[in-house]
Structures are given as structure tokens and as C-alpha cells.
Amino acid sequence: QVQLVESGGGSVQPGGSLRLSCVASGHTGRRNCMGWFRQAPGKEREAVAAIDAARKTFYHNSVTGRFTISQDNAKNTLYLQMNSLKPEDTAMYYCAAAVTCWYWETRSDYNYWGQGTQVTVSS
After folding, report:
1. 96 touches 33 (CB < 8 A)
2. DSSP characters for 98-116?
3. Which pLDDT tens digit goes with each residue over 50-105?
4. S-S: 20 plus which of 7, 25, 54, 80, CB 3.0-4.6 Å?
5. Strands (DSSP E) along the chain, which ranges?
């Protein structure tokens, strides 16, 4: 089993920044790939970024250059630094764990999910 707990969401103005955190616990072999997804009201949940055990990173085109995914293995914590936030970034953000990042954008590849943290970007 893997447990994931997100934090760091909130409300921010356009152009602002937020850092999301996700503390992971449980079977390390089942979380070689860690990802962030988001879901806006009325929309499908979409992959935002992922990082594998070799620290290779993957990003959705819409966040490349603005978001940075990283992890601190000593703290078992995954981060998502979000800069230059836009209103269209508003969504519930979820941390997720998978065995591999081969299909990092595929929701069904992730077996474990956090409860989500809300990000709202509005003036």
C-alpha cells in the first residue's frame, strides 16, 4: 500500500506562485513514478507533470517553463512549484503514484492517489 497526502493549495492572483507538497509513505517499489494531476470542474482529470526514480521529469505542454516537479527522497516528499499561474490553472490538484512513468500521462497507470488540494487563480 501507498499513502499520499497533499498540501499547499490556496488562492493566488494571476502571475503568482504556489508550491504543492505530497508526502508519501508505504511500499517504495510501487511509487517509482510520482505524478501530479489536476481536474477542473466539468473537465477530465489531466496529467500535469511526473518524475521517475532517475529524476527524469515530464510535463504537460501547458505548464512547461512555468511548473517544476521535484522530490526529496530523504523526506519522502514530492513537490510541484507553480509559477506564473494563470486562471486556467484553477483546479483540484492530485498527487499520484505508479510503478513506472512509461505512460506517465495515463490516469489508469497510477494505482495510488491523494485526496487533492485546491488551487484557485483569480484576480
Report:
1. no
2. ES-STTTT-GGGEEEE---
3. 999 999 999 999 999 999 999 998 999 999 999 999 999 999 999 999 999 999 99
4. 80
5. 2-7, 10-12, 18-26, 33-39, 46-51, 57-59, 67-72, 77-82, 91-98, 110-113, 117-121
